[in-house]
Amino acid sequence: MGSNAEVHGVLVVDKPPGPTSHDVVAQARKMYGTRRVGHTGTLDPMATGVLVLLFGEATKLSSLLSASDKRYDARIVFGASTDSDDAEGTVTNTSLLLPNLADSRAIEAALSAERERQWQVPPAVSAIKQNGEPAYKAARMGLELVLEPRAVRLYEVHVLATGDNYLDVELHCSKGYYVRALARDLGAGLGCPAHLGKLRRVRNGSFGLDLAAAWPSSSPVPLMPILEAVKQAMPTAQLAETGVRRARCGQVLTVDDFLGLPEAFVQRSLFAWLSGSELIALGESFDDGTFRVKRGFAAESQA
After folding, report:
1. pLDDT per residue over 127-151, tens digit each?
2. Catalytic site includes residue 44
3. What percent of the chain stands above pLDDT 90?
4. Would you put residue 109 in left (φ > 0), alpha (ψ -120 to 50) or beta?
5. Would you call the peptide bond into 222 cis, given omega within 30 degrees of 0 as the criterion?
6. Element of type H or E holding 61
7. pLDDT tens across 146-175, in order?
8. E strands of the chain, at which residues?
9. Which among 78, 97, 114 has a CA at the least distance from the CA of 196?
10. Do residues 53 and 11 touch, judged by C-beta distance below 8 A?
11. Could you tell me the pLDDT band of residue 105, with boundaries at 50, 70 and 90?
12. Across residues 82-103, what is the average pLDDT?
């Protein structure tokens, strides 16, 4: 496919194990003939599942969709810890004394402690930057890191299956939550080194595996229009003619610039502003009753 600067839309892919998220983006750039491609949340090379790719004007949705909650299926393996907290790392500690994974009360107590956790120390091998460099670079050079805990939430976690040395769990978590750190911390809670053995992301915000295309693909898959993706991710409201003009100019709007804006939308911090079937902008509401543009969209991106 030749170079095409007019590619706009969203593509949900089912990332296979092996490539990095950056590798998938590079493949998509080549396949669709455009440089303007991004994604909404990194998956480690060993991880599989939902990766949302953004093309053209859809890259303006990156910060919004990256902030979405996530759902995963994961396998936590006990008996060994690694420097990356997953199966691809170098083993750092082992134990032949495994927890009794058939003891449902002990397992539930350990999981309950993780549900209550509000701060999580990221894995040393991560993309978090320290002094301008990703932490994983320092870790691979053997440098000792002290990463600051980050505010996270684990909304739900449930056991799917147990084995002699592993738990399969499903979880629902906030942006920024590391499932590798969950494996590490759950092992600590049960008094045994542990690491993440498998990880599959089944949902990123409003986008699940039901929308995902197999990857890599032998030919370009049709992209989801930006408006359809926005409707998947957030509420919408119609603008009056005055609202369209003001939004296009980046001016402050009032309730009168919308067509019958429901009260519920006035209280929302961010929603999509439409004119018929055209996406004009993403906008925020403020306590003083005004509305302001956060991201504007080019009309030609929706042709």
Report:
1. 665 555 555 554 555 556 667 899 9
2. yes
3. 78
4. alpha
5. no
6. none
7. 678 999 999 999 999 999 999 999 999 999
8. 9-15, 37-39, 48-55, 70-78, 80-82, 91-94, 119-120, 129-130, 133-134, 150-151, 154-162, 166-173, 194-204, 207-208, 213-214, 236-238, 270-275, 278-285, 291-296
9. 78
10. yes
11. very high
12. 95
For 289: left if phi > 0, alpha if psi spans -120 to 50, otherwise beta; the answer is left
Q: What separation in angstroms does the CA of 257 have from each of 2, 264, 285? A: 42, 16, 13
Q: Using an 8 Å Cβ cutoff, are 85 and 195 in contact?
A: yes
Domains, the chain: 9-67+206-224 (3.30.2350.10), 70-199 (3.30.2350.10), 234-302 (2.30.130.10)
For the chain, the farthest-separated pair of C-alpha atoms sits apart, in whole angstroms, at: 71
What are the pLDDT digits (tens) for 113-125?
A: 999 999 999 998 7
Amino acid at 142: G
The residue ranking higher by pLDDT, 147 or 178, is 178
Scanning 203-271, the segments in alpha helix (DSSP H) are 226-233, 241-248, 263-266
**CB 45 within 8 Å of CB 62:** no
Looking at residue 170, its pLDDT comes to 98
Catalytic one of 44, 83, 85, 185: 44
pTM value > 0.90 = no
Structure confidence by residue, pLDDT tens digits, 210-221: 999 999 999 999
**Separation CA 180–CA 183 (nearest Å):** 5
Q: Is 131 helix (H, G, I), strand (E, B) or coil?
A: coil
Question: By the 8 A CB rule, do 169 and 161 touch?
Answer: no
The conformational region for residue 291 under phi > 0 = left, psi -120 to 50 = alpha, else beta, is: beta
